[in-house]
Every structure is written in C-alpha cells, then in structure tokens.
C-alpha cells in the first residue's frame, strides 16, 4: 500500500474548442502527491484548474491524459474503488428540495452501495447539527444548513479522503467554526482532507501542506511553513511620539507614511537586520512611541507566485 492518499501524474485536461474559440487547456501535465492523514490545501486564482482537478478526482470529468491513483486504486483500472475512497463536498448547492436531510443521506448511501446495516445517517446528522431537522424538507433549510447537509452527503460512504471545495464561502462565523471543528475531528480519526478556499488565513491555519495551481500548472507545493519561508519580506511599523517630517532612508529599506501617522518600513531579513532599520529611524530624528514587526503571510506568498506566472 502506498503512503499517498492521492497520486497524480502528468494530468492533462483540454476542453474542446467552442465556436470561435481555441481549445482550452485547463490542466497542463500536473504532477502532485497528497500524503495520507494530512490536511492539504489546493489553492489558486479563479480559472486556475482547481475545480477541474477536483471533478476529475471525483469521476465527474474525464481527463485528457495522465494517471490518477486514489488510495492505491488506479482510477482507470479500478474506477469504483477509487470513487468509493473519496467524498466531495461541492461548492454549489445541489440538493433535491423534496428530500428530508435524513432521506438525502439514505439515498446517497444507497447510491454508493452502503448496506442499511452499515449506514450511519443519524450519527452524521448529529455531527453536522441537523438532527432536529432530520425530517424537514431540504427546501426549508437555510443556506448554512444546506451546506452542512452537503458535508453529510460527502461522508455517507465512509470515505478515506474528503474534498472540501470552498466550504466556507458565504457562510456565517458560527457555521465556519462548526465546520472546522468537525474537520479537525475527522482528520484526527485518520481521514485525509483536501481543502480549496479563497480564505487564505484558513489555509494557513488548517493545512499541513499546500499546492498552488495557476493557469493549469503547479507553481508551488510545500509545507505551509516552508512556503511562508520563501518570502522573507518583513515590515516594521513605527508609531512615532511626534509627527514625522522626514522618512527614514537606508540600503534595502523602503518607507511610507500611513494615514494614522505610523511609518511602515519594508525590508528583507536576509539582507537587512532589524537593528539597521531602527538605526535608520533614529537617524531620521524619529522618537519611537511604539514599534512592531510583521512577517509575510500566505497571501503574500500566493500573490507572489501567481503574479510571476501571469
């Protein structure tokens, strides 16, 4: 058995040309491995190819070329086993309005061939906080409740891998906290989680490793901490004791005056020390009332990597 939850080799997807338009290469030979038991972030701007990759993993879109192995099962040779190993919580709400939450889970379990004796619909409803809505029509549920039900449907067949496609887009804080609490529990039980999100602070907090896709290509894949380490850009924010008339200057230092009167000094830690930055502040005749330093976050890394390929 492989230690990879998912192995992708040379994955390509080209959509046929539409009238007056050339064929579109959504994925251009992507190689990617996702380790078992991890919380893995799949990030990229709109149109980067993330949704295409997820739909290929879920068996909803046919690849043009390449090899996909899910939980040790080749997608071409063992399509049923590979699909049974993965559950997908889609971004779009795709619920039958006339099914109750419990009915929707039962039908979904039946589609995956889960015997009645092995179904755990009531347990899932309790986990996602819908046990009191078990027999209500899905159309009467709020948007947040419907998103909870999508998570429940993704779990009915006991998948080893759970894919969350923009799970917290447009949801309230309470639902977001409930969702991440459940995800942490599932991951602690050994489930591999794959997350796509536009909320980069979520990926920074939740993910062990991150892959960044741009224009159908893999532009980065590393641990979250290593990705953050790629940018050693730092910022020192100085709150002066008196209004500033002269901005600090120095080699490798750029400075700007904020609207609140604070001075922001940007520099690279591998070339310029914090001591040098403070010396430039003192040489400018600035008396410091308060000071703090800031380091690059995942958004900085993301923008740097995607802009360089645009």
Automatic annotation (TrEMBL):
Name of the protein described by the UniProt record: Daunorubicin/doxorubicin resistance ATP-binding protein DrrA
The organism of origin for this protein: Phaeobacter italicus
Enzyme class: hydrolase
Enzyme Commission code: 3.6.3.-
SUPFAM superfamilies: P-loop containing nucleoside triphosphate hydrolases (SSF52540)
Pfam family, one: ABC_tran
Keywords: ATP-binding, Hydrolase, Nucleotide-binding, Transport
Transport as UniProt keyword: yes
UniProt-recorded Gene Ontology molecular function terms: ATP binding; ATP hydrolysis activity
The UniProt record lists the keyword rRNA-binding: no
PANTHER family xref list: ABC TRANSPORTER ATP-BINDING PROTEIN (PTHR42711), ABC-TYPE MULTIDRUG TRANSPORT SYSTEM, ATPASE COMPONENT (PTHR42711:SF15)
All copies of domain ABC transporter, residue ranges: 6-240
């Amino acid at each position: 058995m492989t230690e990879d939850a998912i192995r992708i080799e040379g994955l390509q997807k080209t959509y046929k040309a539409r009238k007056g338009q050339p064929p579109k290469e959504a994925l251009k030979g992507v190689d990617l491995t996702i380790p078992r038991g991890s919380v893995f972030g799949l990030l990229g701007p709109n149109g980067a190819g993330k949704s295409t990759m997820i739909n290929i993993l879920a068996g909803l879109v046919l690849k043009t070329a390449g090899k996909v192995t899910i939980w040790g099962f080749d997608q071409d040779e063992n399509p049923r086993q590979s699909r049974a190993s993965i559950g997908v919580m889609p971004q779009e709400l795709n619920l039958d309005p006339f099914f109750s939450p419990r009915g929707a889970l039962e039908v979904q379990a039946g589609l995956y061939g889960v015997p009645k004796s092995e179904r755990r619909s009531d347990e899932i409803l309790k986990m996602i906080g819908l046990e009191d809505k078990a027999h209500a029509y899905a159309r009467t549920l709020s948007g947040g409740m419907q998103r909870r039900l999508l998570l429940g449907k993704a779990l009915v067949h006991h998948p080893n891998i759970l894919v969350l496609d923009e799970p917290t887009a447009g949801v309230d804080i309470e639902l977001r906290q409930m969702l991440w609490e459940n995800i942490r529990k599932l991951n602690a039980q050994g489930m591999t989680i794959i997350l796509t999100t536009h909320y980069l602070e979520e990926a920074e907090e939740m993910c062990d490793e991150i892959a960044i896709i741009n224009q159908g290509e893999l532009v980065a894949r590393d641990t979250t901490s290593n990705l953050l380490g790629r940018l050693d850009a730092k910022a020192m924010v100085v709150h002066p004791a008196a209004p500033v008339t002269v901005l600090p200057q120095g080699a490798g230092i750029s400075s700007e005056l904020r609207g609140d009167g604070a001075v922001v000094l940007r520099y690279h830690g591998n070339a310029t020390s914090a001591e040098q930055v403070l010396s430039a502040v003192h040489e400018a005749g600035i008396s410091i009332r308060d000071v703090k330093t800031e380091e690059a976050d995942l958004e900085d890394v993301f923008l740097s990597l995607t802009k360089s390929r645009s």
